[in-house]
Prior knowledge:
The chain is α/β, with parallel strands linked by helices. It folds into 2 domains: about 5-90 and about 205-420, Adenylosuccinate Synthetase, Chain A, domain 3 (Alpha-Beta Complex), CATH 3.90.170; about 105-200, Adenylosuccinate Synthetase, subunit A, domain 2 (Orthogonal Bundle), CATH 1.10.300. The chain contains 12 helices and 20 strands. It has helices at about 15-25, 75-90, 105-120, 130-140, 155-175, 180-195, 205-210, 245-250, 285-290, 310-320, 360-365, 390-405, and strands at about 5-10, 30, 40-45, 50, 65-70, 75, 95-100, 105, 200, 215-220, 260-265, 270, 305, 310, 325-330, 340-350, 350-355, 365-375, 410, 420. It has a 10-stranded mixed beta sheet, with helices on both faces. Strands 14, 16, 17 and 18 form a 4-stranded mixed beta sheet that branches. The radius of gyration is 22 Å and the shape is globular.
Amino acid sequence: MPAIVLVGAQWGDEGKGKATDLLSSRIDYVVKFNGGNNAGHTVVIDGEKYALHLLPSGILTPGCIPVIGNGVVIDLAVLFEEIDALNIRGVDTSRLVVSANAHLITPYNRVLDRVTERFLGSRKLGTTGRGIGPTYADKMSRVGIRVQDLFDESILRQKVEAALAVKNQILIKIYNRRIVEVDEVLDEFKKYADRLRPMVVDTGLLLNTALDEGKTVLFEAGQATLLDVDHGTYPFVTSSSPTAAGACIGSGVPPTRIDRVIAILKAYTTRVGEGPFPTELLDDSGELLRKTGAEYGTTTGRPRRCGWMDTVVGRYATRVNGVTDFLVTKLDVLTGLEQVPVCVAYDVGGVRFDEMPMSQSDFHHAKPIYENLPGWSEDITTCRTFEELPANAQSYIQRVEELIGSRISAIGVGPGRDEIIERHSLLG
């Protein structure tokens, strides 16, 4: 049975939650392996909308075990708010397990995230201000607080005191903010320790044992390829690795066990926050995509920047992740357009780039080279086979497939759980 990695192929918000939910009825474990509550998945089941932030989307499927891996950073208040909200709606959350090695978002890192963005002014990175970046920075600086630290009060106090010895100096001397008290941090953590304890396991051992037993494991990325800290549009990126390789680091499962990589590609392109975006539309077409596609952030509510499909980005995602299958979402949003432009290359100062430019400066100045494909006006939300799609919609998918260099195995034709076409099995 396979180990499958599911990633976003653009800047996020492609519909990974729906894809995870589609697959989760056929898998045993769903693993969130990176990020924190700075990204969200929206899943619609029987007309009910669920917005998930920290929890893996598989938590909505009975029998599937949701796992928060070691690569995730956790805000405990948000975690339990999300769990409680699902419990009220009758969702069983008792199967959730959490890695002992996952790092915790502290009150001081939330403060630092917000004041740093304000301090940067026009040079801001567009973070969500939820303490994600500072928590990952602490992890790499080896001063982070991990889940397992909650259960040893002496160690926890020592670690918080050591961190605040530096953090409070920054808050006072650079940002002119009040200090954060050690007991303030400890009191916040203590509120959740007893409730969290039964969920905490060695998730690396759990997942490798599951694969040994022939179980199917799905690894679900937060954010997306172009927000990867190494391979994205740096510095306008997240602080973790939402590419396929990050699944191994963030879960403790080795790369030799990964069988398939499924990438999610929206039928157009969106981005939240700062940074270059070659196909961005600052006109009525962009507003049409935003309104028709309801392009507002699940976590932040921020309006998303919208643009046409960029197959240069698609090809890059194929290469970086080793994509075996694509799932194209929101094809229905393009219904009614006479022509559908697709970016096939970039022009940078008169030079054509068929692949992602090596330098951020070139990417910043990239102008899209479009190929215009004929549109369609027929309602496609009831289509359940590829052949039922209008001829022009089929041609659009086939042309994009050629340009991105990997097969499109599934197509989203509406927001509902069942509004999807499977051309090829996503489980191989």
